[in-house]
Design a protein that fits this description.
By secondary structure, the protein is α/β, with parallel strands linked by helices. Helix content is 32%, strand content 25%. It folds into three domains: 1-107, Phosphorylase Kinase, domain 1 (2-Layer Sandwich); 113-264, Transferase(Phosphotransferase), domain 1, CATH 1.10.510; 300-466, no CATH class. The chain has helices spanning 3-13, 67-82, 117-136, 202-207, 212-226, 233-242, 254-262, 266-304, 399-402, 447-466, and strands spanning 27-28, 31-39, 43-50, 56-62, 91-97, 100-105, 139-140, 149-156, 159-166, 173-174, 305-309, 312-314, 331-333, 340-345, 350-352, 357-358, 363-367, 371-374, 376-377, 383-387, 390-393, 405-408, 412-416, 429-431, 437-441. The strands form seven sheets. The protein has a six-stranded antiparallel β-sheet with strand order 1-2-3-4-6-5. The radius of gyration is 48 Å and the shape is rod-shaped.
Length: 467
C-alpha cells in the first residue's frame, strides 16, 4: 500500500494526531509507526510499516494498564491468530514494546454501509458467516457495529471488489463465561454491560448478560441501519424478530437469521405465483366459456375439412376429352373448372353443431357415411355436394335468402328440419340420378326412419286401395 493510499485511509478514519500517545517513527518490534488511525476503549490503532519488508499493517497498542484489559487484549490476539477465515483480519504478530502490549494485523479500509436489497443481503450474509464462525468456536463478539466492519479491497477478473471483514475482537468472550451477575456498588448503582449503546441488546447493556441472541440483536440493528431505519416490508419482519427485547423471541442462531435473509422474497414470490395462477385460471375460464359456446364447434368443423379439388365422377356419363387418373375406368365430368373447395369427411357417428355455419362462396362436398346435423346457411352462392351421407339442415332461412345449391351425388339424404316444401326448392336442389337419393321437409332424421315412414305410407295406400 503506497503513502497516498495510507494517507487517504487515515483521513477516512478521522485521526487526531495530537491525541495519540506515540509519535510517528516509534518502533514496536519489527514495525515502525507511520500514522495514527484512531482510539478505542482500551487501545490505539496506528498504521505501521515493517522495517525490513516495507509492508504495511495495522498496529493496535493497549494503553490501559489493567489486568482485565490485558486479559481481553491477549484473548483478542490469541483468537485472531487462530482465525484463518477471510472474514477476519489476517494476524501478523504479537508482542510488548515501549511498556505496552501490541499486535499487528492486516491493514483494512473503512467504508460506508451498503444500500439496496441485494447489496444489503450480500453484505449481511458475509458478516453472518464471520459471526457464525465465532459462535462455532464458542465465542460471541458483543460489539457488532458499522465501525467494526472494515473492507478488504481487491480485483476479480479486472473489476474492483470489496469484501466486508469483521474486526475488533477486543470484547469477544467465551459463551459459557459471558454472563455475569450484576455487581452492587456502594452507592447502590449497578454496573452496565459492555458493548455499544444502540447495537448492544438490552440484557447485554443493562445486566451484562451476553449470549448468541445478543449478537443476533446487533445484526438486526445493523440491517436496520443499512436502510436508514426505514426497511422495506420484506426486511421489516426479519429485523423486528432479530431485535426483539426478549432474547427467546429472536432467531435461535445466526444460521437461522441468514436463512431468513435468503428467503426474504419467498413470500413475494409465492404471492406472485398465486397471482399468476389466478390470472391463468381466469384466462382459462374465459377460454373455456368461449370454447363451450363457439370454439369447440369451430375446431370440430375445421377437423372435418380437407381442402382439395372437387370433381363429379360418373361411370355412365358420356365420354369427354380425357379420363381422370384418380378414377380409373370412370369418366370425369368437371362441373366446375378445378375449384379448390372444402371436403367434409363425416365419420360414422352423428355430428351436431348448435351454432349456424356460414358458408363462403365456393364448392363444398360432404362425404359419409356419417350424419351431420347443422344449420348451413349464408348469403352466398355456395354449392354443397352430398354423397353417402345424411344432412339434417336445421336452418330457418328460406331458400332464396339462403342461396345454397345442393347437388345429390348418390346415397344422400337431405332433410330440412325447420322448412316446409316450396316450389322454389327446385331451383336450388339437383340430383344426378346415380343412385338412391332422398329429400324431405320436416322429415325423419335418419335413412332408417325414412324407410319406416315410407313403409307405413305404402301400407296405408294399399289399405286405401282395398277399400
Amino acid at each position: 500500500m503506497d503513502e497516498d493510499s495510507i494517507s487517504a485511509m487515515c483521513a477516512a478514519h478521522g485521526p487526531v494526531a495530537s491525541a495519540c500517545r506515540f509519535a510517528a517513527g516509534t518502533i514496536f518490534g519489527d514495525w515502525r509507526l507511520t500514522a495514527f488511525i484512531g482510539r478505542g476503549g482500551n487501545g490505539e490503532v496506528y498504521c505501521a510499516e515493517h522495517i525490513s519488508l516495507g509492508t504495511s499493517a495495522a498496529l493496535k497498542v493497549l494503553v490501559r494498564d489493567e489486568p482485565r484489559a490485558k486479559e481481553r487484549f491477549l484473548c483478542e490476539a490469541k483468537l485472531l491468530s487462530e482465525l484463518k477465515s477471510a472474514s477476519f483480519p489476517q494476524f501478523y504478530s504479537y508482542g510488548e514494546a515501549n511498556g505496552c502490549l501490541y499486535l499487528t494485523m492486516e491493514l483494512l479500509e473503512p467504508g460506508e454501509l451498503p444500500s439496496g436489497d441485494r447489496n444489503v443481503a450480500r453484505f449481511l450474509l458475509s458478516v453472518c458467516d464471520a459471526v457464525a464462525e465465532l459462535h462455532s468456536r464458542g465465542y460471541i463478539h458483543r460489539d457488532i457495529k458499522p465501525s467494526n466492519i472494515l473492507w478488504r479491497t481487491g480485483t476479480t477478473g479486472g473489476s474492483p471488489v470489496a469484501v466486508p471483514v469483521l474486526s475488533d475482537l477486543g470484547l469477544a468472550k467465551k459463551i459459557e463465561t459471558s454472563n455475569h451477575p450484576t455487581t452492587k456498588l456502594p452507592n447502590h448503582l449497578t454496573t452496565i454491560g459492555v458493548g455499544t449503546p444502540g447495537y448492544g441488546a438490552p440484557e447485554q447493556m443493562e445486566r451484562g448478560e451476553a449470549t448468541v441472541a445478543s449478537d443476533i440483536h446487533a445484526l438486526g440493528v445493523l440491517a436496520d441501519a443499512c436502510f436508514g431505519g426505514n426497511p422495506p416490508l420484506t426486511w421489516a419482519r426479519i429485523i423486528r424478530r432479530a431485535t426483539s427485547s426478549i432474547p427467546a423471541h429472536r432467531y435461535p442462531s445466526v444460521v437461522a437469521f441468514a436463512r431468513a435473509i435468503r428467503r426474504r422474497n419467498l413470500l413475494l414470490g409465492v404471492s406472485a405465483f398465486v397471482a399468476v395462477i389466478a390470472l391463468s385460471g381466469l384466462c382459462l375460464s374465459c377460454f373455456y366459456s368461449w370454447w363451450t359456446q363457439s370454439g369447440r364447434e369451430v375446431w370440430r368443423w375445421r377437423a372435418l375439412c380437407d381442402y382439395g379439388e372437387i370433381v363429379s365422377v360418373s361411370g355412365i356419363c358420356e365420354p369427354l376429352d380425357e379420363s381422370h387418373p384418380k378414377y380409373p375406368g370412370s369418366i370425369v365430368r368437371y362441373v366446375t373448372n378445378r375449384v379448390d373447395g372444402t371436403i367434409l369427411n363425416l365419420p360414422k357417428d352423428t355430428l351436431s353443431f348448435a351454432r349456424p355455419i356460414l358458408l363462403k362462396p365456393g364448392e363444398y362436398r360432404i362425404v359419409g357415411p356419417g350424419r351431420l346435423d347443422a344449420d348451413l346457411s349464408g348469403p352466398s352462392n355456395a354449392v354443397v355436394r352430398l354423397k353417402d351421407c345424411v344432412l339434417n339442415n336445421t336452418t330457418s332461412v328460406p331458400y332464396p335468402q339462403n342461396g345454397i345449391h345442393y347437388v345429390f351425388e348418390g346415397g344422400a339424404y337431405l332433410n330440412f328440419v325447420n322448412l316446409d316444401r316450396n316450389i322454389e326448392h327446385r331451383r336450388y336442389i339437383h340430383s344426378d340420378g346415380k343412385s338412391r337419393n332422398a329429400l324431405r321437409f320436416r322429415g325423419p332424421m335418419t335413412f332408417k326412419e325414412l324407410d319406416e315412414e315410407q313403409a307405413r305410407e305404402y301400407e296405408r295406400m294399399l289399405q286405401r286401395d282395398l277399400r
